[in-house]
Amino acid sequence: MRQTYSFLPTLQALVACYQAFETYSAADIRAMGLTPPQFDVIATLGNTPGMTATELGEKTLITKGTLTGVVDRLAERGWVERVAHESDRRCQIVRLSQAGEKLFARVFPKHMAHLAAAFAGAGATDHARWQKALNELEQVFRKETA
Questions:
Q1: 91-127 confidence digits (pLDDT tens)
Q2: 105 forms bridges with which residues in the sheet?
Q3: For residues 46 and 79, what is the distance between their CA atoms, to the nearest angstrom?
Q4: If we measure between CA atoms, which residue out of 128, 59, 126 comes closest to residue 94?
Q5: Which of 126, 115, 82, 80 is nearest to 99 (CA)?
Q6: What is residue 84's three-state secondary structure?
Q7: Is 79 helix (H, G, I), strand (E, B) or coil?
Q8: What angle, rounded to 10 degrees, do the helices at 98-118 and 36-45 form?
Q9: What are the residues facing 96 on neighbouring strands?
Q10: What is the pTM of this model?
Q11: Which residue in 97, 68, 102 sits closest to 80, CA to CA?
Q12: Does the N-terminal or the C-terminal CB of the chain have fewer CB atoms within 10 Å?
């Protein structure tokens, strides 16, 4: 007897939406000379005094192993720097360098404008409806992992 999964169309729609977003977003990021993980780190560190690698990993979609390589490559390009933590000598703070701050000031608004173009035809009611549906779906998974 074959099992039917009534939730499968929902999962397919969620995955298709995320893939479409990633394709749209990544093309713009790559056109600026960055990879999506590099942009994620630059955007997350922007307008902050920096954060530990653990905090950075929690705030981005990058796994710990990948994050180290991404930060290394950004440091090699002079966009981030690692500095000693003020109160915990066992860890370092990752922060944007001056060149990284300039990069953030250039690429972040440009990418936000690119994303805004995708939402140009949507109104406040559309956004409220999408946010409500996505928040409800998020709670389904949070409830299952609590």
A1: 889 999 999 999 999 999 999 999 999 999 999 999 9
A2: none
A3: 11
A4: 59
A5: 80
A6: strand
A7: coil
A8: 110
A9: 80
A10: 0.87
A11: 97
A12: N
- The SS3 of residue 92 is strand
Question: Which tokens belong to 135?
Answer: 């928040």
Report helix, strand or coil for 52: strand
Which among 56, 19, 27 has a CA at the least distance from the CA of 114?
Answer: 27
Exposure class string for 67-105: b at 16+ Cβ within 10 A, else e: beebbeebeeeebbbeeeeeeeeeebbbbbeeebbebbe
Domains of the chain: 9-145 (1.10.10.10)
Question: Tokens 């705030």 correspond to what residue?
Answer: 59
Lookup result for tokens 């995320």: 18
How do residues 30-89 score in pLDDT, each as one tens digit? Answer: 999 999 999 999 999 999 999 998 999 999 988 888 999 999 999 999 999 999 888 877
Give the separation between CA 118 and CA 146, rounded to whole angstroms.
Answer: 34
* Structure tokens that stand for 143 in this block: 């409830």
- Token couple for 113: 């404008």
